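step=predict obj=Citrate:proton symporter n=344
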Amino acid sequence: MRLIVRIVKGDPLKVMIGTAILGISVALDGDGATTYLIFTAALLPLYRRLGIKLQYMATVLLLSIGVMNMLPWGGPTARAASAMKVDVGELFMLLLPIMICGLAWVVLVAVIFGLRERRRLGVIKIDLSEETGQLTSVTNYRYLFNSALTIALLVMLILGILPMATLFMIAFAVAMLVNFPNLKHQKELLAKHAENVLAIVSLIFAAGIFTGILSGTGMVDAMSNSLVNSLPASAGPWLGILTALISMPFTFFMTNDAFYFGVLPILAQTATSYGISPMQMAVASLIGQPVHLLSPLVASTYLLVGILNLDYGLNQRASLKWAVGTVLCMLSGAIVLGTLPLHN
């Protein structure tokens, strides 16, 4: 963070490119909420000082986590692998080059936004010592220990030593004990962030209730069967590509659990008769994830727009076309690489 602030100075184009690079790096944990909290705490003062539109920050961060959420510990990849009964490691290796195509698009979008803001604002010469000083005080605090803890956590996540939630809870407890050994300071820190945490938990419970209604009443099965029955026989060989496109609206209007465990198995069963493997269907189903991040059922997005004080509906409209672009870029990459062939 300190390096990026030093490099970008007052150039909006460099700030936007730095946003994409830093957003992708922080999103290595595959979680939107932590990415938004860490990034905005670091660079929000810089955005406000330069006058760069906060909507551009929101869009680039949403696109970044939309791709990085496909990491094995992000959630959707594990769901798709479980639903299709394929190895999550093999699935991720197929996804990796497709994700790189998506990340290239994220950087391109950041460049477009940066050029727009450079034309609007120009290159502003300001003293960034205050922002750099804030970052220095944060990053130098027990830097070596926190770096080692982060690396150890990532290694254990990749190796799958324990469930993801358990590993994060253990790492959080250790980080709290070392960085804030005083119980009073721990309570103050928890109280400071409790509002955001409770809001996310409430939204997750609400989303769970909605999912239960969809599944318990049979609406998910009805939608899945209606979709399959409405497809003409000639569409069978194209089911892999169609699934990638269908995953955008379906994961927008329903949760990942409902799509991957309710809709995907039905589509895959039909696709098998056309020579499309479960692994290919798993890959196809994940390509629509960047659009899923804009769904009203995704709790972390509420956190981001809340921090930036943006209107949720306006953020959806501003970000949707760029998210669709990410999906189309990854789909094109999957076709060119032969992961989702046009004909079987």
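step=describe
The chain has one domain: 2-336.
step=end
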